[in-house]
Amino acid sequence: MKQAKAFAPASVGNVAVGFDVLGQALDGPGDTATVTLMSSGVVVVKAIRGCPHALPLEAAANTAGRALQSLLAHAPEGAGFEVELDKGIALGSGMGGSAASAVAALVAGNALLPTPVSLSVLYQAAMDGEAAASGSRHGDNVAPSLLGGLVIAPAEGEPVRVPVPSWLFVALVHPHAVLETKRARAALAGSYALSEFVHQSERLAVFLAGCHAADAALLRRGLEDVLVEPRRAPLIPGFAEVKAAALRAGALGASISGAGPSVFAWCEGRAQAQAAADAMVAAFGAAGLKADAFVSVGAAPGARVVAR
Amino acid sequence: MKQAKAFAPASVGNVAVGFDVLGQALDGPGDTATVTLMSSGVVVVKAIRGCPHALPLEAAANTAGRALQSLLAHAPEGAGFEVELDKGIALGSGMGGSAASAVAALVAGNALLPTPVSLSVLYQAAMDGEAAASGSRHGDNVAPSLLGGLVIAPAEGEPVRVPVPSWLFVALVHPHAVLETKRARAALAGSYALSEFVHQSERLAVFLAGCHAADAALLRRGLEDVLVEPRRAPLIPGFAEVKAAALRAGALGASISGAGPSVFAWCEGRAQAQAAADAMVAAFGAAGLKADAFVSVGAAPGARVVAR
Hints:
Two copies of one chain form a homodimer.
Chain A: E1 3-13, E2 22-38, E3 43-49, H1 63-72, E4 80-86, H2 97-111, H3 119-134, H4 142-147, E5 150-152, E6 160-162, E7 168-175, H5 181-186, H6 194-213, H7 216-222, H8 229-232, H9 239-248, E8 253-256, E9 263-268, H10 270-286, E10 291-297, E11 304-307
Parallel strand pairs in A: 3-4
Antiparallel strand pairs in A: 1-2, 1-11, 2-4, 2-5, 5-6, 7-9, 7-10, 8-9
Helix pairs in contact in A: 1-2, 1-3, 2-3, 6-7, 9-10
């Protein structure tokens, strides 16, 4: 029986200035998928563990199941997959849990193929899985979960890595509240002024220049979401205070992770990131929410096979 | 009599993916300003040469005059400036002529001050001048004209340089038709969908990654304006054919320079840029427009004092 187990990390989608375009892997939390190669010709989601809420077991409706269905198109005739998921990322947390499940399943499944597929094929298959879970095809969580680090996630073509400073650490705080991606997306409905795009793309450009130059002052100028954050912040209790707490602790910038409600901060060094995480947890506490904190290196590793 | 003469280059505003945010200097065309330090306490625009259309001589309404008025706030009590402009950039061409006049005047004027002001102050003063000419405060022409090369032009704070590949050349073709900035801006009225911004910012991010990595394939993927170009292209006779001609000649990408009607193309090497320029001139010719062509290095020098 050919079997492989893979781990895929959680990730920060959007990274403030790159809505649906940028994503960053986190070192620590993640999902694990155990995939068995079958001769059934189909994908079966056998079990999902570590998840208090019910996730769909029907393959086409499950993020990992749907992703493996796309991979099956590149497998030998008659091949099938059976997948078991161990969720390490809370649902609706804004930490890229659906993407991590899809990526972990794909990396494990790919390791079982006689001819593994390219990164491009895995990326597109992972976006198929993401669409099954969130209703929209976007790569800003699957790309970093797959590659690690900070990544540009285009709709077409391969993801593009962006260097981050060696001193960069990320603080992420997950409040115990669920914000459904669909509700977070609904907050973005309506039309936008061109001037909003100009302000946001100016920050995106300065932010990317700061990443390439490892320049903290540029990152401080660039790491600010003027487009999406103002529309979503009201959905997260205490957000303004949580963000302010991170900045007071010295963070270069802080914003909503993915669709929220988790909040992340970019920091100079591990100690500052820990201080920002503590301050954000305290601020969520003052708003009546318990919260978990994670501190990660900026260039966290991507998905990998952990057993076979 | 203290006098200085400065040259400031023409520039490509927007550079396809950075509307009001990115700009690139061109080597060759530009404006020259001769500034004399006076004890009048005011700015006088004495003469404008090389310009078939009448430009305002009233200082506050003239791009160079208005910029020098802002510089005067940093000059010793009672100081004044007299400025003469030699225009080398056609009006309404989309080559950043108003910005070049403002920048040339400022660089000359600054050279006459006992304590020259910082780049930041010059940049803000140049945007004041730009606003007098175009009705909107934007730095995507003044920043590259001042600094040279490819530049991020933020509304606040200093411009940020972006490296370009050493093999990069720019072809710019100026058809003999005037497109007023105000009319070009009117084409952008109305509201925008968030998805349009996602597509454009994805290209901006890939483009900047390509600049930093000197990666022609990334530049080819990124250098495409899906936001502004579709709305302005109908104002430029033959635009679709001109752009297609540049791409057929091998260009990495081509789009409208600033508010148009000039069209630019990014190319690998001088020979390809010359071929793209020739092809674009021929395509404008087929649309009934005579056109001038310029070929420039990607990292063209910025404004400088040429005599004092």
